[in-house]
């Protein structure tokens, strides 16, 4: 395994396998506690500082490390990928003489941290079984977990996972007990089918729950946006109606004001026309009076001539003609002045 090749390769790993009652590293086996993997959110409560180890490096380094931690918690198998997909550079610049030693230390650091991430899963699964009452005693194997870490082992995430895992173990035991004794209940096919079924069911349930929650959230957000948009539109419509009424009232007021002004103007024009007509009548009267005065002047002159009778007839005719010209000129000037007015 890659974990063995990178982390503590000189330790007696094979001896540890035999102490755990395995005949070899390739022997098929199954742990009942591993039927249901704990959710990553619950695993992250243990050793929560691991994800922040490479904070301060480039964003790509931090993102790659978080991705590796998530893969380890979700059952990622490093034996099926290239070494470049698992390890990444997160070292400061160092002299060339120290680069080999620094590379080795960095590799061991990453491998040990990844081992701690994988141990999250094991610790939580074992805690579920350790906290179950021992048959016949009513006691648990360990109360210190709850006393020392209640924020983890009394959290709702842990309680939900514990219930789910215990149900899976009970179902597995019932299924395995119904199989004939000659069939290996720990054969690779049965183990893979059970693990895959339980894991897929868990993932499916969580996916459906997440999708339903997301759908409800989107539906609520859409309803709120629709309600808000309708409120804005109604407010805009009310404002438009108000502005239209105000504009209509202003237009009516302006029209009435203009009609009143036109009425006053027509009345003024009528008065002016009446005044002009009166002036024309006065001018005609003055013209008539002037004609009468001229006629009176002519008669006066004729009387004077007849009284004195000092001129002969030709002179009288000439004077009469002169008087008539004078009267005619006076009338012409009077008519011209009247036409100008």
UniProtKB/TrEMBL annotation:
GO MF, one term, reads: DNA binding
Record-annotated membrane-spanning stretches: 272-295, 301-327
UniProt KW Membrane keyword:
yes
InterPro entries per the UniProt record, alphabetical: Ndc10_dom2_sf (IPR038279)
Keywords from the UniProt entry: Membrane, Transmembrane, Transmembrane helix
| Name used for this protein in its record | Uncharacterized protein
- What organism does this protein naturally occur in? Linnemannia hyalina
């Amino acid at each position: 395994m890659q974990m063995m090749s990178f982390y503590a390769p000189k330790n007696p790993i094979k001896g540890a396998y035999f102490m755990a009652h395995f005949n070899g590293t390739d022997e098929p086996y199954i742990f009942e506690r591993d039927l249901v993997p704990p959710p990553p959110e619950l695993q992250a409560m243990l050793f929560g500082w691991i994800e922040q180890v490479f904070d301060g490096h480039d964003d790509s380094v931090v993102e790659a490390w978080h991705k590796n931690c998530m893969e380890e918690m979700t059952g990622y198998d490093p034996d099926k990928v290239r070494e470049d997909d698992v390890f990444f550079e997160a070292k400061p610049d160092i002299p060339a003489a120290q680069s080999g030693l620094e590379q080795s230390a960095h590799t061991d650091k990453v491998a040990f941290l990844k081992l701690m991430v994988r141990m999250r899963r094991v610790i939580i699964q074992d805690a579920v079984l350790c906290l179950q009452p021992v048959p016949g005693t009513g006691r648990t194997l360990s109360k210190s977990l709850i006393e020392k870490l209640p924020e983890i082992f009394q959290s709702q995430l842990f309680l939900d996972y514990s219930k789910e895992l215990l149900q899976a173990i009970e179902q597995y035991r019932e299924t395995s007990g119904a199989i004939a004794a000659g069939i290996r209940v720990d054969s690779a096919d049965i183990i893979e089918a059970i693990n895959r079924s339980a894991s897929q069911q868990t993932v499916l349930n969580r996916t459906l729950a997440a999708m339903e929650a997301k759908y409800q959230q989107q539906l609520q957000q859409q309803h709120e946006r629709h309600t808000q948009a309708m409120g804005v539109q109604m407010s805009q419509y009310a404002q438009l109606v108000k502005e239209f009424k105000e504009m209509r009232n202003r237009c009516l007021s302006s029209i009435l004001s203009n009609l009143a002004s036109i009425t006053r103007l027509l009345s003024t024009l009528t008065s002016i026309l009446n005044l002009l007509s009166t002036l024309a009548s006065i001018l005609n009267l003055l013209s008539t009076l002037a004609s009468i005065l001229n006629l009176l002047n002519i008669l006066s002159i004729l009387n004077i001539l007849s009284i004195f009778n000092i001129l002969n007839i030709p002179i009288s005719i000439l004077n009469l003609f002169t008087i008539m010209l004078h009267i005619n000129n006076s009338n012409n000037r009077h008519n011209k002045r009247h036409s100008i007015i």
